[in-house]
Amino acid sequence: MNKEQLKDLNLDTQQSKLIEKLFQSMKDGSLSEEDLQQLRDSGLTKKLLQKFGGADDSNSLDAFMNLTQLDGITRPVQEDISLLTYESVLKRMDQLKRLGNERFQKSHYTYAHAYYYQLIQLGNRYGQEVVEKQADISEELKQERLAQLNKVASLAASNLSLTFFNTNRIEESLKYADLAIQLDKSNAKAYFRRVHALQLFGRIGEVKQTFEQATKEIQDATLQESLEYEIHAQKEKDQLFEKNKQHTLKRIETDKQYSQFPVELVWNDNMGRCIMATRDIKQGELILRVAPFGCALSDDQIDLNCGSCFRKIKYYKSEKCNSCKTNLLCEICIKDPTIVSMHQEECSLISFLQKHYPNAQTRDFRFMIRVLLSGRANKLGRITKEKTPQLWNQQPFIYDSYEDLASLTTDVSKIESKQLQSFTVATNSITNFFAAVKGPKYLSDPFTKQEIFDLYPKILFNAHEYIDPLTHYEIGRGIYPTASYINHTCLPNTTWYNDDHGLILYRSSRDILKGEEITTSYLDILKPKLQRRKDLKQYSFVCQCERCLNEKLGYLCSECGEELTEKQIEIWDPIPEKQFDGRVIVCSKGHFKPLSVYESLESIGETACQQELIPTFNLLFAPYHPIHIVLYKKILSNSIRHFDEPSKIKINTVTDPQLLQQYFDALWKSYKNVFQDPENVIMFSYVDDLSELFQLYKKLPGDNRAKLLEIKDKAAFYLETQTKLSQNQLLKEFEDYFQI
C-alpha cells in the first residue's frame, strides 16, 4: 500500500498509520487483539469493507481479522461424565437446545451447529458410559432414561439437519436427519428433513419410502396433517414428472431433428431428460444449434444491436422501425420476410410501451411479449419449423414448439411466495396490456391465464443470457427449450455461444465418448464448492458430479502447512463474546484455528480486490483451492479498469504493470491447479483475461506491439477452437477490440 492509494480514503495521519500497521501485521502474522480494537474504535471498519469489496458488516471484518485471536480459546478438557447426575445432564441438554434455538432463530447457524452437536454428544456419552452401565437401577428405568436422552438428542439432530440444509450442506443434513430418526422414530420433523434432502439428491424412491415410514410412526394429529400436505405435494411433483416423461418419450419417437447432430434425446427415470452422444465426438465439434423461442435485448443494448440476430449494429447498415421508433434490424435481417413479419406483430405493443413507459426498464416485459407471440403463432399453426426465418435454415437447427416450452420442468414449491405473487402481478399486467393493444381475445383464445402464469417460472429457471464472448457483457436473454435439456455439471464437456443469427450453439470442449452425457454449467464454476452449492439451490438439486464428490477442503494449517481435511474439524465450547462459534480445525501436530477464519476469507474473497490478501490466502489455502482464482480475477479486473484513470485509483488498485503481469501468470497457474484441462473447460475465462491484458498493454508507454500481437493471437486461437471465429460475425468485433 502506498500513500497515493491512501489519499482516496481521506484519512488523517493517525488513521493512515493505523491502516499501514494493520496490513503489515496481516502480512507477517502478528495481528493482535489490541490492533483490532484500535481499528474498531477508529470507525474505519465500514469504510475499509466498502473499499475492499462492498461488504457492509463489521462482524465480517472481525471474523476475517481473526487470524490471531486465539486467546482464551482452548481445547475443552473432557470432564468425568460419571460424576454427573441424570437430572443435571438433562438440564445441560435443555440449556444447549435453548442456546442452539436462540442462535438458529437469528440465523447464526454456525453457533447453532456447535450447540446442537454438543447436546447430541453429551446425550450419547452419558447414555453409553453411565446409564447403560448403571447396576443400581431397574432395567425399566434404564430404558426409560435412555429413551428420554435419545428423544432430546433426536430433536437436536433434527434441528442440526435443518441448520445444515439452510447452509447448503445437504450431505450433512441427510446424515443428521437419519440420526434423528434412529434416536427417536416418532420425531416427525426428522422425516421432513430427510425428505427435503433426498429430493435435492433426486432419490425419489427413498422419498416415498420415508413417507411410508413416517405415516406409520407419526401419531400427532397436527403433524399428520403436515405430512399429508407433503405427501400430496410429492404426488403433484410425481404427476408432473410423469407428464414430462410422456412428452419426452413422444418427442423421442416423433421428433427426428436430433438426428442432424451427433446426439440424441433420452429419458432417464432418475435424471429425467438427458442429451447423450450417439458417437465419439472430437473436441470443437458442433453438438447442437437451437433456435430461440423468444429473446430480447437488454435496455441499454437496443440501439447497439440488431433486434433479431443481436449483431453489433455498428458493423452493418441498419434500419429503425418508423412506427415504434425502437426496433433496429441489420441489413441482413431486414431482407428476411419472416423476421420483418415477426416484428410487425409486436410493433404496436412496443409502440405502446414507448409511449406510456418511455423511461422504464422493459427487457423482461419485451422478452415475455415475444414468448407469448411465438407461443400464440405456434399454437395457431402460423409458425412451424418450415416457417421460421430463412437465415436460421442455412444450417441444421432444433426448433422447439410451444408444447416443448410448456413441458419444461419447474418446481414451483421451491419458489418463495413473494416471487409467486410477482408472477401473478406480471400475468395480470401482460394480459391487460395485450387486451388494451390487441383486443381482449388476442391472448385469451390460445392461452388460459394459468398457462401464461406457468411460463414465468419456466423462463426464470431456463432462460439463457446472451453474452458477448469478448467483454462478457450481457447483451440480452433468450429461452431455448432444448438447451434446457442439457444437465449441469461443474466440469462440463461443452461450451456455448450465440451464432450470427441469434441461435445458441454448443460445441464439445473436449473429446466425448459415445454414450456419454452432454453437459453444461448453470453457474460460474470458478467458485468454491460451497458457493456453487448456494448458487445451484434455486434449481432444486445438489450437483453430484465427479468434481463435487471428490473436491478436497483445500485448507492449510498456517503453522506447519499441513493439508487439512473435514475429519479434522472439531466442536469446542463457543465463546460468543470473542466471536468464536466453537468450530475449529486441528492439524495432526495440534495446531488449531477457528473454522470461521477460512470461511470468512472464502466469503470475503468473493468480493475483495486487495492484493494485501494474497499472502494470507497462500498461507491458508492449498494451491488447488478455487478462491485463488476468484481473488486474482477481482484484483486484476479492478486494477485494469482504473489503470489510466488516476482520479479513480483506489486503495486496492495495483498500478505496477510488471506486478499485474505476474498476477495474470499466477491466475493462469491457479487455473491449472484447479482444472486438469483449463484451456478447454474454461476457455472463455482465458479470453476474458487476454482481453483485459491486451487493454493493459495498450495503455502502457513504449513499443508493445510484439506483446499485443502475442496476446491477440492467443485469444484468436481459443475463439477459433470454440466459436469458429474466422467464420463468425464476432470477427469484426474481435478485430476492432484487438486493434493494434
UniProtKB/TrEMBL annotation:
- Domain named SET is located at 261-523
Q: Which superkingdom? A: Eukaryota
Alphabetical list of InterPro entries matching this protein:
SET-MYND_domain_protein (IPR052097), SET_dom (IPR001214), SET_dom_sf (IPR046341), TPR-like_helical_dom_sf (IPR011990)
Gene behind the chain: bopA
Cellular component annotations (GO), alphabetically ordered: cytoplasm; nucleus
Q: What name does UniProt use for this protein?
A: SET domain-containing protein
* Keyword Cytoplasm part of the UniProt annotation: no
Keyword Transcription regulation attributed: no
Its source organism is Cavenderia fasciculata (Slime mold)
Q: State the UniProt keywords alphabetically.
A: Methyltransferase, S-adenosyl-L-methionine, Transferase
Q: Which GO terms describe its molecular function?
A: histone deacetylase binding; methyltransferase activity
One biological process term in Gene Ontology: methylation
